Amino acid sequence: MSRTIAVIGGTGPAGMGLALRWARAGETVVIGSRDATRAEQAAEKIRQRVGAQAKVSGAENSAACAANDLLVLTVPFEGAAALLKQLKTAIRSGSVLIDATVPLAASVGGRASRTLGVWQGSAAQQTAELVPKGVSVVAAFQNVSADVLNGDEDVDCDVIVCSDDPNAAQITMDLAVKIPRVRAIDGGKLENARIIEQITALLIGLNIRHKGHGGVRITGLPESAYKTGMDSP
Length: 233
Fold this sequence. Notes:
By secondary structure, this protein is an alpha/beta fold. It has a single domain (about 5-230), classed as 3-Layer(aba) Sandwich (Rossmann fold). It is about 35% helix and about 15% strand. It has a nine-stranded mixed beta sheet with strand order 3-2-1-4-5-6-7-8-9, sandwiched between helices. Helix 5 links the parallel strand 5 (about 95-100) and strand 6 (about 135-140). Helix 1 packs across helix 2 and helix 4 packs parallel to helix 5 (about 125-130). The longest helix has 18 residues, at about 195-210. The chain starts with a strand and ends in a 6-residue tail after the last strand.
């Protein structure tokens, strides 16, 4: 059974892009924001693009967390820790939280093409320390261009999914392949998120240098390693 997807901090480019893609795929999406009015305005923009049939709404972040157990964190890294602390009482035990954030130096005045050191090892591992007990954290979607997500073309990118919870990883992979042309790959434990986050910084540098919107494709693995939209029920 399909679960409602709550995109926390969903009014930014990454959150809007993911929400748009999932709404197009027929998923039910709640866009979260610090401001409920702003969240509903963002939902209306998606409805205008997808059509009246789009199952998308807006809510204040804590309300979105309290009402749903499939959460996607898309806020800039520098605000993630404070937001998670604020939302701790609202996030339900048993929830799956997909962390798409990247600790980019640009977010604190540095260069976008490098990542900041995070004491826990990665943004996703920091998130795992901050969420309530019983919440499964997954790292995914860091390498997908927000510009591409917000466009109309298929997304030419693999999504590498890292988590210590195999069930949460599977849920995330199922969600990833709702986006046309995306393949999902199990990237192993959550500690591998630090590598995925660093790839994002590399991609930003490449995109700036070559004026593009590059993603990543992993080649040479057995066919069974790749989950695609064709595999979804």
